[in-house]
Design brief:
secondary active sulfate transmembrane transporter activity, 28 helices, 7% strand, 3 domains, disordered C terminus, 723 residues, six-stranded mixed β-sheet, alpha/beta, Transcription Regulator spoIIAA, two-stranded antiparallel ribbon
């Protein structure tokens, strides 16, 4: 893999920089830099602002709802009209052919595909924000509509009863009643999809498309292309045809229709043809509201997929030509378009990739090209329907398959995704397989849930690093990834790259344990057990507790190395005294106390975006656990809102104060190093331990002077322990 390009390898003007400032923790920083309070509006103020109206705001809202008022007055007739006309004619020819072809996928008569290629454009011209997409049928959405239509109106419901005069066993179907019912179902579904889109747009829920990631959409559309191919293969095999696309598909369709009419393939070869295309327009028909409950689930998925396809394509061209698309307004535009076209016996409209590419590549500048393409479809509906009736359905099926090439080519994205991000590649493959096996509706839902599951898992098992200092700088890098980085002596720095919440707090604790090399709770328990054994030896007179530490009796046998006893037998009242204990030296009792090689722990929370109440409570407990074993915990690089959340959740206590929070990791390191220097010139720190006593009376501390000249080896070990 090629290395990323670099800027100028040498930056002579910026070779070094020097910054002189104090070491800041949060309180000291706030003393010098006062925080600016944000003015938060009340609910009443927000409502007043939202409901207030002015002439400028009214115009802005009107242009937002009707984008045509924004771009049409700026239309450059001389520069754009010719390009839009050429583009509209080309796109209209393709839309006519694709509308008829995609009607096969929607399981409705072919002629209704022409309506679906005409009516949605009229409303999108007024309400849409994309200048380049060609509105109309799309194979994936048409197939989803067809699956609903076929499930609600299968052929078995329209079988004609046999008569006595019928001698053969041929099943006869009332195709007229079947087609009428299917058209009603498709148009009703279109209205319901439009209502859902309109509601989502009005509620400003355009962000829902963000959860349809590119790998998920790629896997889904590839699976849909496979199902489209299978559904059209039987039609193609009726009369063998060769696939063409683009302008050749139009020429080939004209030739095929002429041959079919001249040779009379319908009668001689029993080839399926279009047969009948309604001339002119049918009167508007009200949808069957009673069907809404049966198609509610499927209609939601169709609404989201249709919107996602249109916005994804629209954004590609918006970026290319430097203009913006309003996602919520697109929801409204397609919602109105589908409601309007549903009353005219259309099926769900979105945009087709190939048709939009034709409109843009032939010079389309605005939706004027879309209106001109609608005029071409109108001519086909009004005048050319009779000429298209002999056209073979196999030719239309071949057109559908030819337009699947781009979606099938998405398979080539999988190796690239695997190299770049294996999780995205798995999402692509999972969604594709699920959509093929479970169907498009359930497959899309399964892919969406699987994609969200990968996000949860990445949050639940995040990454972390232990950091070291780049010598001579204030930079801190991973000790595993970089060679010449040094860990400050006695300090561990842990950087956590995720929000911390109830789902990953256990992972955070494991990362701490793995980085520091010990379990703070286990260390504390082991130390407590060692102290209990020391107390037992003190009771027997074999050890003596002094203000300077613990010393052994010269004449006594140290029984502290006897096998461990049941801790319950050592549950004795305790009293706090101050003595010196070096827990990293050899102890006079047989207890394996883990060594603690650090005195400070820095938690770099610069990448922590939020905390919940469970995380705050767990952090408070972690700080206490480390404090019990003389390890100070500091926090670095916290965001202001995270600090505010800690305060809201009651994080601070007597020993947990805001002085523990530093602006950067380097601030915390410098502070720790200064504290270590101060402590080295003072008396050693006195360690508070619990001495277990058998009696209620306090244990008398002896200030006995011990002559070092008569100490044996055991006494010397005790003295080393005490110091």
């Amino acid at each position: 893999m090629a290395s990323p390009r670099r800027m100028d390898p040498e930056l002579p003007q910026y070779t070094n920089y020097v910054v002189s400032r104090p070491v800041y923790n949060e309180p000291s920083f706030l003393e010098q830099h006062e925080r600016q309070l944000r003015e938060r509006q009340t609910v009443r103020e927000k409502l007043v602002k939202c409901c207030s109206c002015s002439r400028r705001r009214a115009i802005r809202m009107l242009k937002s709802l009707l984008p045509i008022l924004e771009w049409l007055p700026k239309y450059q007739v001389k520069e754009w009209l010719l390009s839009d006309t050429i583009s509209g004619v080309s796109t209209g020819l393709v839309a006519t052919l694709q509308g008829m072809a995609y009607a096969l996928l929607a399981a409705v008569p072919v002629g209704y595909g022409l309506y679906s290629a005409f009516f949605p454009i009229l409303t999108y011209f007024i309400f849409g924000t994309s200048r380049h997409i060609s509105v109309g049928p799309f194979p994936v959405v048409s197939l989803m509509v067809g699956s609903v239509v076929l499930s609600m109106a299968p052929d078995e419901q329209f079988i004609l009863p046999s008569t006595n005069d019928t001698l053969d066993n041929i099943t006869r179907i009332d195709s007229g009643a079947r087609d009428a019912e299917r058209v009603l179902i498709a148009s009703t579904l279109t209205v319901l999809v439009g209502i859902i889109q309109l509601v989502l747009g009005a509620l400003q829920i355009g962000f829902v498309v963000r959860y349809l990631a590119d790998p998920l959409v790629g896997g889904f559309t590839t699976a849909a292309a496979f199902q489209v191919f299978v559904s059209q293969l039987k039609i193609v095999l009726n009369v063998s045809t060769k696939n063409y696309s683009g302008v050749l598909s139009i020429i080939y369709t004209i030739i095929a229709a002429a041959i079919s009419y001249g040779v009379d393939l319908e009668k001689k070869c029993n080839a399926g043809i279009v047969k009948s295309i309604p001339r002119g327009f049918l009167p508007p028909v009200l949808p069957s509201v009673n069907m809404f409950s049966q198609m509610a689930t499927a209609s939601f998925s169709i609404a989201v997929v249709a919107y996602a396809v249109a916005v994804s394509v629209g954004k590609v061209y918006a970026i290319k030509y430097d203009y913006a698309i309003d996602g919520n307004q697109e929801f409204i535009a397609f919602g109105i378009s589908n409601i309007f076209s549903g009353f005219f016996s259309c099926f769900v409209a979105t945009t087709a990739l190939s048709r939009t590419a034709v409109q843009e590549s032939t010079g389309g500048k605005t939706q004027v090209a879309g209106i001109i393409s609608a005029l071409i479809v109108l001519i086909a509906i009004v005048a050319l329907g009779k000429l298209l009736e002999p056209l073979q359905k196999s030719v239309l099926a071949a057109v559908v398959i030819a337009n699947l090439k781009g979606m099938f080519m998405q398979v080539c994205d999988v190796p690239r995704l695997w190299r770049q991000n294996k999780i995205d590649a798995v999402i692509w493959v999972f969604t594709c397989i699920a959509s093929i096996i479970l169907g498009l509706d359930l497959g899309l839902l399964a892919g969406l849930l699987f994609g969200l599951l990968t996000v949860v898992l990445r949050l639940q098992f995040p990454s972390w690093n232990d950091l070291g200092n780049v010598p001579g700088t204030d930079l801190y890098k991973s000790t595993k990834d970089y060679k010449n980085v040094d860990e400050p002596e006695g300090v561990k720095i842990v950087s956590f790259y995720s929000p911390i919440f109830y789902g990953n707090i256990d992972g955070f604790k494991k990362c701490l344990k793995s980085t520091v090399g010990f379990d703070a709770v286990q260390v504390y328990n082991k130390r407590l057990k060692a102290l209990r054994k020391i107390q037992k030896l003190i009771k027997k007179g074999q050890l003596r507790a002094t203000k300077n530490g613990i010393v052994g009796d010269v004449c006594a046998t140290n029984q502290g190395f006897e096998p461990d006893e049941d801790p319950e037998d050592l549950d004795i009242p305790t009293k706090e005294i101050e003595i010196r204990v070096d827990w990293n030296s050899e102890l006079p009792v047989k207890v394996n106390v883990p060594k603690v090689p650090i005195h400070s722990l820095i938690l770099d929370f610069g990448a922590v975006s939020f905390l919940d109440i469970v995380a705050v409570r767990s952090l408070r407990m972690i700080v206490k656990e480390f404090h019990r074993i003389d390890v100070n915990v500091y926090f670095a690089s916290l965001k202001d809102h995270v600090i505010a959340k800690l305060e809201q959740c009651g994080f601070y206590e007597d020993n947990i104060v805001m002085d523990m929070f530093f602006l950067t990791v380097h601030d915390a390191v410098l502070y720790i190093q200064s504290q270590v220097k101060i402590q080295t010139v003072q008396d050693p720190i006195l360690k508070k331990i619990n001495l277990i006593q058998e009696y209620k009376d306090p244990l008398e501390l002896m200030d006995t002077e011990v002559n070092e000249d008569v100490l044996d080896v055991q006494d010397e070990a005790m003295r080393r322990l005490a110091s």
